[in-house]
Amino acid sequence: MELQQRKRLVYLAGFMGSGKSTIGPILANTIGFEYVDVDKLIEDQIGKRITEIFEELGEPGFRSLEKKALKEVAGRNDTVIALGGGTIANEENFKLIHGSGVIVYLKLSPEEILKRVKHKTDRPLLKDVQGAVLSEGEMQKRIEDLLQSRHQFYARADVVVETDRQRVGRTIDEIVRKLRHVLAI
Question: Which of 75, 29, 74 is nearest to 185 (CA)?
Answer without folding.
Answer: 29
